[in-house]
Amino acid sequence: MTHPLFEKHQATLEAAVNAIHTRGYWSAYPEMPSPKVYGEGAQESGKQAIEALVGKDFALDQPGCTTWLAPERSPYGVRLDVRYPACRPQALIEAAQAAQPAWQKLGPQGRVGVCLEMLERLNKASFEIAHAVMLTTGQGWMMAFQAGGPHAQDRGLEAVAYAWDEMRRIPAEAVWEKPQGKNPPLKMKKHFEIVGRGVALVIGCGTFPTWNTYPGLFAALATGNPVIVKPHGNAILPAALTVRIMRQVLSEQGLDPNLVTLAVVERREDTQALAIHPAVKSIDFTGSNTFGQWLIEHAKQAQVYAELAGVNNVVIESTDSYKAMLRNLAFTFSLYSGQMCTTTQAVIVPAGGIDTDQGHKSFDEVAADLSAAIEKFLADPNVANAVLGAIQSPDTLARIDESLGLGTVALASKKIENPEFPGAEVRTPLLLTCDAGDEAAYMEERFGPIAFLVRADDGQAAVALSERLVREHGALTVGLYSTRQEVIDAMTEATLRAGVALSINLTGGVFVNQSAAFSDYHGVGMNPAANASYTDAAFVANRFRVVQRRYHIE
């Protein structure tokens, strides 16, 4: 019998499955905050809903609550002071285990149907979630709405689509009949049960608390696993809103809401205790190399999906659209002040310069023109504040100043005032130039609005350097500008060997640091920046097992 929520959302699911097979453009959730889509007054009511939470307890009715914590500090300088329940890790584990059997019995259709209902509810709460994302991460409003709401929901739906596509391949039962010559055949009835591997731990990051969390969260849940969401200490609210909505849907369906819980902790040791618990069988993590490597080395009982630091880079060998290239790069560096796992850090340019549609440009001219393009793009304070957002972490602010001595300053980082949020720390990009031999400067991730223009011997050396950066230090994105097919071919081969996504000659409205759900493969799993691809069947397939039972029949 088909689960009613599966029937309700079946058309959306089928479209999502078709999208992951065809890889063209498709989105289930509108990315523009239009009143025609989300309702008149939705933006203001979402803002008011968040403001109403300030200074209050965020009740979730979870087991094992020992105290209430309010650690968040807004990059925009506004008061948050939302208090969250801090629960004993063991209590959350035991509650998750108790909730799992009924979730398993629901079967793939039922689980997928419930997950799709959760995503629909999250979409309806997009404005509320967007304000939470904006105030906790420092993202500009439009990015907070799109990346924190519809784009994140698309990524969650993408994971559910992959989970369904894998699970539906497995028949629920079969009759096995083996001929025995003149004797009666051997006949058996066999049943195949999809079983979640165990408790899933999803550890969020401080910059994209929904976009980076929903894939692992929904991949684990759809495949039969209870999930504990451990948010970053400064971006709890978006995760708490998500968990609350998911728990409401579970309760409405007569299921144990403790299938999804929120783990707000005081110490890293509490997160570590969760991570190494024998019941935890999968961990999704986005963050620092230090803690990511700790998880990989110590959480041996779990499959760890880790997205870590890397050095994303672009090679400029030549171009036939010089101004458009500069505009594209200016936006790339400015978007959310470079606080994205996909933002370019190193731009590698031949020492002898590049050929363009405006004539030959020397290395120094490229540096000057790129600096001018960034300044022009951010000249309007309204545009600058909307695109740059605010610096999420004091560590990033300090990193900008610490980087000044790593090269020659082509463009200094400036502080911009935000009239709406006087306490916001807004910074423009810092652009430095250096030689390829100055490896200590650019061959490590310097998260934030910091970029290097790296002087390579020639185009061939630039391609080789890009490949070495990816192999040794990892990357999620690589870009190339070239008018020569032999260079494009060489860069293509280099990225295939190193295992990284390549964008070629982006000059329009698509940027190297953007990743489209259902089409782009986010992460390859072949270099140090990520040990998995987060948009393919393998991302979900190892989260469940098939347990069979069989018996003789006449």
Which key features would you list for this structure?
single chain, 554 residues, alpha/beta, Aldehyde Dehydrogenase, Chain A, domain 1, Aldehyde Dehydrogenase, Chain A, domain 2, 2 domains, seven-stranded mixed beta sheet, five-stranded parallel beta sheet, 21 strands
Describe the structure.
- This protein has 554 residues and is of the alpha/beta class.
- The strands form 6 sheets. A 7-stranded mixed beta sheet has the order 14-17-18-11-10-19-20, with helices on both faces.
- It contains 20 helices and 21 strands.
- The chain folds into 2 domains: 4-22 and 29-308 and 533-552, Aldehyde Dehydrogenase, Chain A, domain 1 (3-Layer(aba) Sandwich); 313-504, Aldehyde Dehydrogenase, Chain A, domain 2, CATH 3.40.309.10.
- Helix 1 crosses helix 8 and helix 18 (459-473) runs parallel beside helix 19 (485-498).
Write the layout of secondary structure elements.
Blueprint: H1 4-22, H2 35-38, H3 42-51, E1 65-69, E2 84-87, H4 89-105, H5 107-124, H6 126-137, H7 141-148, H8 150-167, E3 173-180, E4 183-196, E5 199-203, H9 214-222, E6 227-230, H10 237-252, E7 260-262, H11 268-275, E8 280-286, H12 289-298, E9 303-307, E10 313-316, H13 322-334, E11 346-350, E12 354-356, E13 359-361, H14 363-377, H15 381-388, H16 394-402, E14 408-411, E15 415-416, E16 426-427, E17 430-435, H17 439-442, E18 450-456, H18 459-473, E19 477-481, H19 485-498, E20 501-504, H20 538-541, E21 544-552
Parallel strand pairs: 5-6, 5-8, 6-7, 8-9, 10-11, 10-19, 11-18, 17-18, 19-20
Antiparallel strand pairs: 1-2, 3-4, 4-21, 12-13, 14-17, 15-16
Helix pairs in contact: 1-5, 1-8, 3-6, 5-8, 5-10, 6-7, 6-10, 7-8, 8-9, 13-14, 18-19
